[in-house]
Design brief:
By secondary structure, the chain is mainly α. It is built from 2 helices and no strands.
């Protein structure tokens, strides 16, 4: 049986103020170089998914007899 999910803690007092201040001053720390790497990985995953979709459609067409093997 699954374990019960605990309640999300609520921050009060100094902890809450400190957390809110950190969230207000949060900065994006991704450099342009890191972004370029992440974007290239994203594009390669999209290309892989596209190849998989083409292969799936080809198998489906072969299975239904729409195209010869």
């Amino acid at each position: 049986m699954a374990r019960q999910i605990r309640e999300t803690p609520i921050l009060f007092g100094e902890d809450g103020k400190r957390f809110e201040e950190k969230m207000r001053n949060a900065k994006c720390t991704i450099t342009p170089e890191q972004y370029a790497i992440m974007y290239s990985h994203y594009k390669s995953v999209l290309a892989s998914l596209e190849r998989g979709e083409i292969a799936r459609k080809t198998r489906l067409a072969q299975k239904t007899g729409a195209i010869a093997k």
